[in-house]
Structures are given as C-alpha cells and as structure tokens.
Amino acid sequence: MSCTILGPLSSSSVCLPLYSFRVPAGFPSPAQDHIEAEISLDELLDLRAPHMYLVRISGDSMINAGMFDGDLAIVNRAMEGRPGLIVIAALNGDALVKRLAKEGEQIVLRAENQAYAPRYVLEGDELLIWGVVTHSVRCHAPG
C-alpha cells in the first residue's frame, strides 16, 4: 500500500456540535437533540499543526486496520515510530503505510492484509519513518 503526501494541516477555529446521545446503529431514538458541547476537530483528533500532515491511502494492504483505498490518514511527524504503530515510511525511496514491527533485531514493515508478505528491512536498505498514523478519515457519501 502506498500513499500520496497531501501536505500539512492548518489549525481551524470551526467548532461542531456534539450531541449528548449516542446514535444507535439499529433503530433511531425519538427526537433527542440536546447539544452537550461544541468541539473542534483539531481538539477531537489532537491536531497540532505544523507536526501533522495528511496522506491519501492507495491500495488494500491495510484493510484489516480499517484503512481503505482513498482514505485520508492523519500523520504526526513528531511521534517516534515504535513497534506496533502504523507508520508512513520510505523504504529505499518508496512511500509506504505499514505497521512497524521487530523480530529480534530485524525491522519489519507489516501489511494488515494476509494477501501481502511482510517487508523485511535488510542491510543496505534505507528506511526513513516520516510519521505515525494517528487517525484515518473515510468519506461515506458518493462523489
């Protein structure tokens, strides 16, 4: 799975209403429209520009992590890539989104789709971690 760097995020002063009731995935509740608070997406997603940037996901190697082709990933370049985290990495110049792992001293970039083999970082390979994926965003409306 590759990614396209879209650029840094800018702070926003827009706040959205947060309703106090939970929306059921089955049958809707009767008219409950009490606004609990107003919250900004910056606060909700812990966006701290200029350390944050967006990438567009391409491919299906991370589907078991809930990341699909065309999704946006929010990346924190200030976070240290550690085993277990999903990272944006450059392996020999190719931008990838993978789960960082270690087997002993061996660094491994793992897909979240069993159809893809892990990518072992070998001696002589150049690996750069460009940041840690903190959230992903998917559009559910057509177009």
From TrEMBL:
User: What GO molecular function terms would the record report?
Assistant: DNA binding; DNA-directed DNA polymerase activity; hydrolase activity
List residues of the Peptidase S24/S26A/S26B/S26C domain.
17-133
Q: Where do the coiled-coil regions begin and end? A: none
The record's InterPro entries line, in alphabetical order, gives: LexA-like, LexA/Signal_pep-like_sf, LexA_repressor, Peptidase_S24_LexA, Peptidase_S24_S26A/B/C
Give the keywords, sorted: Autocatalytic cleavage, DNA damage, DNA repair, Hydrolase, Nucleotidyltransferase, SOS response, Transferase
Q: Which Pfam families match?
A: Peptidase_S24 (PF00717)
Cite the EC number: 2.7.7.7
Does the record carry DNA damage as a key word?
yes
Question: Which GO terms fall under biological process for this protein?
Answer: DNA repair; regulation of DNA-templated transcription; SOS response
Its EC top class is transferase
Q: Which family does it belong to?
A: Belongs to the peptidase S24 family.
* NCBIfam families in the cross-refs: PRK10276.1 (NF007621)
Which PANTHER family does the record cross-reference, listed alphabetically? LEXA REPRESSOR, LEXA REPRESSOR-RELATED
- State the name under which the record lists this protein: Translesion error-prone DNA polymerase V autoproteolytic subunit
Q: Which organism is it from?
A: Stutzerimonas kunmingensis
- The gene name on file is umuD
